[in-house]
Amino acid sequence: MNRTCFMSADPAAPNVSKLYDQKVDFGHFWARDDPNIPLPQCDNVSSDSQCSVCLDQLVRVVCRNLTAGVEFFMEGRGGSISFNKTVCPEPPSQMLAPSRHHLPAIISAIICLIFIIIIIIIIIKVGTNSSRTFSDVASTRTRRRTWGTDRQV
To answer: Helix/strand/coil (H, E, C) string of 87-117?
Structure first.
């Protein structure tokens, strides 16, 4: 996905209401219906629009798949808002993607570990039961021999 990013330190930037291509008379990349609702924090941004707008210390804009030659324009209550094109940060979804790919391997490893622990517990119980049975059998044989010798004498 092709991303283009902008930021604005303009005092009017938190009141941004629309982002659009100045060369096109219709449509927009992003619009805010109610300028009284504050912009979201940049760590919690999701948007169905072509552009997302958020606020940390500055107003930041991330647009997806802007066509070449777009004359990007930021507008607020008082008119135009100054902005600069910036380098886009790594998107959170791509930073988390490798971890998601490891999830099936982690789950499989946990299931195997549980399975091995269950097998070890079964082996220990069977071994303990077998040794008790062997001891019981051995003591029974000893008692029979003793009983039999006492009786014959």
So the answer is: CCCCCHHHHHHHHHHHHHHHHHHHHHHHHHH
pTM: 0.55
Could you tell me if 54 and 30 are in contact, meaning their C-beta atoms sit under 8 angstroms apart?
no
Beta strand pairing status for 79-80 and 84-86?
Answer: unpaired
What is the distance between the alpha carbons of residues 36 and 14, in angstroms, rounded to a whole number? Answer: 10
Task: Give the C-alpha distances (Å, rounded to integers) separating 36 from 32, 83, 152.
Answer: 9, 21, 108
Could you list the pLDDT tens digit for every one of the 153 residues in the chain?
688 899 999 999 998 999 998 888 788 888 988 878 888 888 766 666 788 899 988 999 998 888 888 889 999 888 899 999 999 877 655 444 445 566 777 888 899 899 999 999 999 888 777 655 555 555 555 555 555 555 554
- Strand-pairing partners, residue 55, are 41, 59
Structure tokens given for 116: 């091995």
